Amino acid sequence: MIDDVQEASAPRRADALRNIATIVEAATRCLADDPDVSMNAIAKAAGVGRMTLYGHFPSRATLVAEVVDRALRDAESTLGAVDVSGDPMAAIGRLLDASLRVTYQYGGLVQAAEQSLSPDLFQRAHAQQIDRMQALLKRGRRGGQFRRDLPLEWQVTTIQSILHTAATAVHQGTVTAEQAPTLVTTTVLAMLAPARPEE
Q1: Is the per-residue pLDDT at 70 higher than 90?
Q2: In 3D, which of 188, 112, 192 has the Cα closest to residue 147?
Q3: Which long-range contacts (CB under 8 A, 24 or more apart) does 152-158 make?
């Protein structure tokens, strides 16, 4: 009897896992395109009913948190593979290029996360990426390649804003995907360049 129950429950568990994966994938696409997308639209994109959607994710915030968690793991896998050794200026170019690709891929998901997650949780979600950028900037500041007269945190915040602005511009068609990496790197390096002494 127990074996019969286990055999009957196994397909249900497999179906549930497939539904969850389908919902998360659909939500990732929908939120990347529109951070304000409704749960109804996500359910439709996933090909499931509202009861199924809410059965797995009882609130929009719960679903967004799951999508963001998976997206951040994927982003960390990509950014963690970037070589940030050697010359800081060359290293930051590689990191910016990879960061732009990740930012563009997830688009409005960042905005959705800001709307749904608490500031503390949102900050913790970006901790590894921020730490990586800060470590690289500190090395460049010590070596004299990057300016030291501006707060480090401000430099990181500015770089993040530039990346998000570039990704938005590509989505809107005002900048091409081919132009964006050069524009981002040029803008960031200009911002980081040591201040020239007054003549």
Answers
A1: no
A2: 192
A3: 155/191, 155/192, 156/130, 158/191
Q: Could you tell me the residue range of the domain that residue 172 belongs to?
A: 60-199
Q: Do residues 128 and 158 both lie within one domain? A: yes
Assign 34 a pLDDT band (cuts: 50, 70, 90).
Answer: confident
Total domains present in the chain: 2
Q: Does 159 lie in the same domain as 70?
A: yes
Cα 196 from Cα 144, distance rounded (Å) = 12
Q: Would you call 70 helix, strand, or coil by DSSP? A: helix
31 and 125 part of one domain: no
Give the residue from 58, 167, 67, 172 showing the smallest Cα distance to 115. 67
pLDDT of 8 reads 45
Confidence of residue 141 (pLDDT cuts 50, 70, 90): very high
Q: What is the CATH number of the domain that holds 115?
A: 1.10.357.10
> What is the average pLDDT score of the chain?
85
pLDDT category, 164, cuts 50, 70, 90? Answer: confident
Alpha-carbon distances, residue 9 vs 16, 21, 181 (angstroms): 11, 19, 50
Between vectors from CA 160 to CA 194 and to CA 140, what angle results, nearest 5°?
30
